[in-house]
Each structure stands twice: as C-alpha cells, then as structure tokens.
Amino acid sequence: MRLENGELRLSASDLGSHLGCDRITALNIQASDGRLTPPVFNDPALEALQQRGFEHEEEYLDHLEKKGLSVVRLDPEIYGDSAIEATREAMDAGVGAIAQPTLRYGRWFGRADVLLKVEVPSSLGSWSYEIVDTKLSSNTRAATILQLCMYSDVLGELQGLVPEYMHVVTPESDFLPETYRVTEYLAYYRYVKRDLEENIDDFKSEKRLTPYPDPVEQCALCRWRPTCNDTWRKDDHLTFVADISKTQRAQLSDWDVSTLEQLAELPIPLNKRPSKGTKESLERAREQARVQYEARTKKSPVFEILPLEPNSGFARLPEPSIGDVFFDIEGDQFIGKSGREYLLGWTTKDKSGALKYDRIWSYDDAQEKAGFELFMDTVMLRWSKHPEMHVYHFHHYEQTALKKLAGKFATRSVELDQLLRAEIFIDLHRVTREAIRAGIERYSIKDLEQFYGLEREADLQDANHDRHALERLMELGFTPLPEDLQKTVELYNKDDCDSTLALRDWLEQLRIEQITAGSLIFRPMLKEGEPSQQLTARRQTMKDISDSLLENIPIIQDDRSSIEDARWILGNILEYNLREENSAWWEFFRLRDLSAEDLADERSGIVGLEFVSRDDNNGNLPTDTYSFPPQEVEIEIRGKLNSVTDELDENGELIVQNIGTVESVDVPNRTLKIKRTGKTKDFHPSTAFFHNVVSALELENSLVRIGQYFADNGFESADSYQVTQALLLRNRPIPNNHGLRKPAESALDAAIRLISGNTDMVLPIQGPPGSGKTYTGARMICELVRDGKNVGITAVSHRVIRNLLLAVDAAAEELGIPISIGHRGRETTGTNLVEIKSNKAAHKKLADGDLAVVGGTAWLWARPEMMESVDVLFIDEAAQMSLADALAASPAGKSMVLLGDPQQLSQPQQGTHPEGTSGSALEHILNGEKTIADTDGLFLEETWRMNPAICEFTSELFYENRLSARGGLENQRLEGTSRFIGTGLWFVPVEHSGNVNYSTEEVDKVAEIYDELTSGNAGWRNQSGKVATLQSEDILIIAPYNAHVNRIIERLPSARVGTVDSFQGQEAAVVIYTLGTSSPEDAPRGMEFLYSLNRFNVATSRARCASILIANPRILEPECRTPNQIRLANAFCRYKEMAQVIEGSPLKKISVTGIDARSGPVELIVEKPHKNNPE
Fold first, then answer.
1. How far is the C-alpha of 876 from the C-alpha of 858, rounded, in Å?
2. Among 392, 425, 492, 842, which is most exposed with the fewest C-beta within 10 angstroms?
C-alpha cells in the first residue's frame, strides 16, 4: 500500500494482511499518508533471499529458452507507465515468456515473475498468457495464491480473458510447475479484494473508525502487535486470562464483564447459567483470573494446588529414573511438501547425574527419516537398559509428531506402538494443568519457569527471532544455513529439554510436599507394552516383504518409474491396516484417560447418562434406556459403547468395559436404548464413549500374499494377480490415446462393451451426483449375467452393497433377465436376495453356479479361496474404499469395475500413511485430478436430478464444467407465494456469535422457512411439468453437526433431518443446508471439516429445484492460511456470488380485487404467522 500522485495504490500483500485483521488495513492507511510511523522490521536474510530468488527466476528462464521459447526480460529498474507499456508491447507481440512484467488495473498494481504464453485465444489474438511465480519455498502459502489471483485478475482485464491456470515453480521441481486452476480460488480472492476496498474507502472517509484490536492468530506475526498489546494492557483485556476461549469472552461481555479484574471478582458459584458453554468452564476461567490477579497484585509468582484426583495430576508422575529422557522437537509445517520435524533434541543424565544433550538435524526427507529412526532406536536401547525409564515432553506435539513420522515413512511403528502401549511418554503440560493453577497468562513451559527458577542460556526473544528466521530460510530451500542461526536454535531446543527436566523435578517436589502433608498419591504402574508374539511375527513378515519391494526405490515420487511407483505403493501399503489399528488403539487409550469434563468435548463421548428403565427381553440380555443432556455427540446405531468402570486391573488402573451396543436413539426426548452385555449389565455409567477397533486380518493377509508374489516375481513377468497389477500401475482399460467411448456412444453402452469383451481390466466409472451411477452399474451387471458371467459386488458397508444388489434385481426384472442374487450380510428380508450365512457358503454357491451375483464386504473377497471366483468384481462407492482394501479384494475378480466419485464423501482414516497409500481406489486412479480423463475411464456427464441452475454451480466448482443437466430438468422449479420461487441457489444470512456446534438462531430460521414451504402455498414442478404441493418429504434439512441436527429434530420432529453422511444417495425438491456454527474459529473439527468440498457438494447436490444455505455471514468470510483452505472457502464464496440473498422474515402476498400481486401494480402485504415460530 502506497500513495502515488495522491492516489492509494494496492498490491497483493495488502490482501494478505487485511485478511487476518482489518485493523492492520486502518493502521497501514495512516502509515501511508504519514499519520503513523510503523514499527521497524529488519530481516537480515532478506538481501540474500532476494538474490537467490533472482537466480532461481533466471534459471527458469534459461530452461524455457532451451525448450525453444522466446523470452523477453524486462528491466526491473523501470517503474510506472514505462514498465506498463513495455509489458503491453511484449504481450501484443506474442512473446513466449515475459520476465518481470508490470501489471496495473485501477488501483491495483504489481510486478509478476513471468507471463507464460498459452495457445488460448484472447483479445491479444490466438494466444493469451498465464502467471508463473518462481518461488523459493517448496510449500505454497495462502499469500502466494492471493498474489497469483490478483495478477490473474488484472491480466484478465488486460487480455480480455481470465487465465485458466496459474503456476508456481520451485527450485527442487526440475521446473515442473505446481499448477492451480484459477476458478478454484478466484471467488475467495474477489471477496477479500472487495472487503479490502470497501474498508479502505470507509477508513479514508472516516465513515468507519480504526477498529479495536481483536486478538487473532495473525497477531503473533504482525508488525503492529506492540501497538495493540499496549491497548490490551491498558484495558486489562480478557485475552490475558490463560486458556480463556472466544466463546467465554463473548459470554462475559454479555454480562458486562470485560476485564481480567472484573472476572477475578465475579462471585462464584455463578448465579446464572451461560447461553453457550457450561457454567463449570466459566467458573474455572474465573478461578484462573483470580489467581492471575493475585499474582499481579503481589507482584510475585503465585500458584495453588488443585484438589487431588485418582489417576490425574501428580498421580501421573512415575518414579524418577536415571534412564529418563527429556525430549523436545522443533518443526515447521511449511518446510517441504508435508512439513518437517527438523530438530529432535533430548537431555539425559549419565551415571554420575551429569546432564547430556543430544540432537539430530534434518534438512530433507531422507535425513528426517534417518533422524527419526535414530531417535527411536536410541530410546528403545535406553529402555532395554532402564526398564523403569520414561520420556518426558511438554504438550502433545511431540507424540503427535512421532506418530506422523512413523506413518509418513512407514518405519519404527512397532517400536512406537510398544512405547505408547507401555505409557512411556509423559506429557508434563497435562500433569501441570491437572495439578496446579498458576498466576500466568499462558501455560507454556517458558511461563512456568518462574516457579522453578530455570535460567536459559539463550535469550528468549533473540532465540524466537532466530528460530523464525531459520525456518523461513528452510522453507525457501536456502543452503547452507547460517551457522549462527542454527547454533541459537539448537541452544533454544536444549533450554526446552533442560526446562522439561526442571519442571518434572519441581512437580515431583510438590508431590512429595502433598504426601508429607498427609495426602495419598499413587504412582502409575510400569507396563511392558510388548505386542503379542503373533503380532510380532506378522510385522516381521510384512517388513521382510516390504524391504524386498522397496530395495533401491527412490523416495521422491518424480524420480520413480511407473513400476517403481507400484513397488513403492505396494511395499508401503502392506502395513496399512496395522497402522489404522494402531491409531485406533491409541485413540482408545486417549479416550479412556479423559475426565468426564474433557470427554464432553469429544464427539465420540457422551456424558450425563441417567438410567431410566430396563426391558428384560424375556430373560435374554436386557435393553436399558438412558437419558442424556444436550451435547455434540455422534451416536452410532449398533455402535459399541465403552465406559471406565470402578474396578481395577492387575496394574491398579481402572478397567474399561464394553457396556453394550446402541439399538436406537430418540433425539427429541434425548434417550437411547443400549443392548447390555452380560458382564456389565448391572453397571450403570454416567459417562461413556463410542469406539471400536475392527480387526482387518483377512485384508492384511491378502496384501501379504500379493506383496510376496510381486516381491518374488516382479511386475514385468507376472502372470497372476493381473487385476491387482493393473490397479497398482493405473493401467488404462484400453491402451490408446483416443478415449474409451466411440462417437455418439452413451456411457452405459461404452461401459457394457468394454467390460464384456475384456479381462484383466480395471474400468473406473466416475458418477457425479444424480448421474445414474447405480443405474449404470446395475445394467452392466445384468448384461454380464445375460452373457453367462458371474459378478461380485463389494463396498465399505452392507448398506451400500444391498442398495446396488436391489438395483440389479429391479433392473433384471425390467430387462427380463433371469438372475439369482445373494448377499453375505443381514437385512435381506422382504427382498429377492438370498441371505448367505457364511463365507464358505458364498464360495460354494458361486463355484456351483447357484448364484450369478454375490455381494459382500472386502473381508469376503480377500479370502484366498475367492481368488478369481467371479468374472467381474464391482466396487461401489469406490471413492470411499481405501486403496489398501481394494487391492486386498482385487484377486477375486478377473476384471474390476470401480464405481464412485472422489468429489463426494470419502472414507475416514485414523492413521498417517506414506505418500500414495492413504487415498481411495478411485483417488489413486485419478492421481490428483478432479475428473477422470476420457482415456482412463468413463465420466457420467449428465445429471438426472439437478435443475441447470444448480448443476451449473456443481459442475463449475467440483467437475471442471464437465457435468450438465439432462434435457427436461429445466422444467423443475418452485412455484407459489413463498420467497423461494423459481430454481437455483439461495443464501439466507443469520447473524449470531459464540455458537460452536448448534445455533438456536438458525434453528428458528430453518423452522420459519420449513413452515413457509409446507404451508400449502408453495409447490414444485417436476421435469415432466407435473405440479405438486410441497410436503415434508420434499425437503431435506442437512447440518454438519449432530448437536444442530438434534435441535432441529426437537423443533421439527416430522421433518427429514440429518447430517451429510445420512443423506448421500438421496434427493428432494428442496435442500436446506444449515451450518450451525458462528465462525471458522468456533467450528468443531476445524475448517477442513466444516468447509469440506466433498460434504458441500453432497449437501447442495441433493436438490432438484432449490438449494438453500443458512449460515452466519462470517462463515463466508474466513481467514485462510493455506492454499487448501482458500480452495475450501472459495466454494462458499462462489455459492454466495451465484445465489439469491434472502433477508428478513417472510411476508404473505395476496391478490386484491382479482389481481395477482406477483404481476399486478397493486399488492397488499400482510405478515404471515408461523406455526413453528414460538414467538
């Protein structure tokens, strides 16, 4: 931002700063016109980085010239109109690449790195240009995306065409660009740009004053932070209360409590209940403020001991050992493609008690892997010498990072699992928070050091500065790294390790003092953590095969051939199910150890259970009914419910028991029925959690057989597992470059032709919403049966399998094809499906020809006797089945069909897995693309559901404009006298704040709209022109959170209400999607869940006529910190751009003297009452 001839010029950097905080914009305006002097920011590495950047750009330009492109290098010392004219001349001349072009349109200006010519017509001629940014960092940030969007936007004005793509080229990419589709980010950019321009105009005209500083994430990196911090200090802002949440601050503000002192003096117990959150959590915040205020008043460190609880606080401290390790990690998520843990440090004691510090630096993936292995081997060796030892760390980052590294590199997972099972890791942050309450503003190890008197060797301010500087250099690939910065960061890490030791000793001293005063505090029991001999043998077998497959295979994907990549995937996917199982057990142990208070914050936890009644079930195991208070919990029907009992095991720890499975839930009355187990039927818990660890041994065994075969035979000469090989290698169904479909051939006809005449084929079929994926699959199967072939069907659930089996049955009846269908599952009653009682029976019925079509999960098809048991194996919803499970089932078929859509719901995963092994089968085939290429599979390009107005949004955002509405769907529309007349997208803004997982304000709005649409005054016209009055079954109400769903059900018990997951595959004339949370910061499970493109696609594409989004406007205005977050938010921003905005309450229009108010000049408007509005 700068003044130029009295006019304020804006650049891409202004977008990024405004995004996080509009106060920055106000202060920057005042700095630009001289009213404020900004704080000085010095970056000692800036000059070196700029030089390195120029060198990288020049290397890229040389590369382009070697490819034969003409390159014009514009003078970087020329500015203003001359630079703009030089850029325009080069563009008009059609130069292949233009370096350092100056772009300006209106108040926006900037100098891009390179304009690259593409053969796409524009106002320039038969060509146009796209932006290329030569970045040193291998990890693209949000600011870079906004910069590229700004350049692309301005470039679009200059050449009459917004470029389709924008590119980033990094030094380690061999000049292969990282390409971004502009439309996937442009709507979000337009929102930020528009908001910035409006704010600038308001600030300059003094229509709006400089806003009060609101604490945000960007504060830590902002140059204006000292200014804002002074304001907060002067005002005694609540942000200084340790661990206070935004929701709590908002609630206290409603109670006119705005300072730390006011909160500290608030009487407790509280005499009123908060509208959001719990009374207990606010009382804890009040107590925290009290201790901080006391410390401030005394001007000395203050802390107090919290009430002692079993298995909590001091009771988590094991007996100190000479073998103990005090551990700390320095990491940065922006280094490399997936982040890097670049420094592992630990302090130990030798036999004499002297301290010894060790550390491992990692500068690339290979070193990071080797460093992790060395640390793990060091700990395991020390554990063998000191069985009583533990590894102490502060907060959960270290454990999380180790789990990530074990999964990322598929190494040392056995050892890590053993350490975790033995509870070797001790989180001192957790111990501290459960043991004491301290008069400090943050429960960081640095703030706690005042209590145990640690003197750091490195100045903390200088160390933080140098650490950020070093990380920036590492992000940009700068080598060699300055030794002085490394030395400071190493000293900083050593101080953290030493401080962890000092903190443990101080907590140990406090523990002793409590015992001396008469308290009884037990030590945690030592555990071995040894896996079973069977598990150890399984792991060794997989390791041997994996080592053989991965021998001499490059770590970097770009360095691998297709066969090497297949070996990499197979070698690293063998332990997929073990990694998932380990993660499931780690999650089980975490949930087990949570207090009732913490369990209330977990979506798998349920608290406040109260026994209501028992049904003895005629002497069988009883079914108990329990009530529960409102809470965000995902209640799983048939889900296994666990609870910590009051019994102790041999280690003196409370036992966790399975108390039963959930049979049903009554949401309006908040009760659930639990089918009890015999062992725990007399135990009535108040808290419980849902968690089930499923054994995937059958799938694992199949992968081992596959891995052993290819390790022994290779891929080049393999004559078995042909379908498995085709899937691993991503082989095209037909090896040509001309597409799979013949001219004028439908996708269904092409699918039948391809699968009927070929073997050893993997045929992917991508079916967007309403495109007839199930219809296509069912008719393919019928034609295969007509040809005398047998077919297997699998999916991630019996529900999905049953759905396709029933569709096959219906299609066969319609086509007049005799067919016999069996299901290795339950719920076949009332259908023509034959229930298959066992896996053995399934194999026999196929082998004997008794059944032509059999459905079962991957556990059935992965069995060795099922190899090539069917001519074709269909995987339905293949975007939800992991590649590992698809590979495990693949030997069962002589060919395979993958039906699904990676743009809809995917399979949740618990573990971290090596690159290329974590996606679904269809994602593996698409290899990063949104839609499948015509040469690689079939794309069902017509929707039979959505009106063209809805389809346009869906196609643009999710399917690269390849999806269109089938003829006749333009007739679908809403009619009548409601506000929602016609078809397309609507946005209904509802202001609210502090809501986490439900909003009463949005529930009111949902009820209002639902009542309006079902009042009898609204109808909908189908594609055939038939008009019907809108009924409750014509409306789907969808929400992301169960708590929000439950409150809507309570309000509208007869409505169709559920989460996105419960409505995939369904449709209705109207879809109401209500988000329930107030802001991205409030949203449970983070922005990635709330803004999930897959979930948004599923929710909005259920609609035939109308998609209505209800949300706080703040949801459509998020701060994004990564390119992926921009891509997620972009869909919501684009929705708003394409939607009609409805504000206010409905009004009923009536005709006067026979004149229809919708078309006549005279209308009388009266308010319409609403039966579902309690007001």
1. 11
2. 425
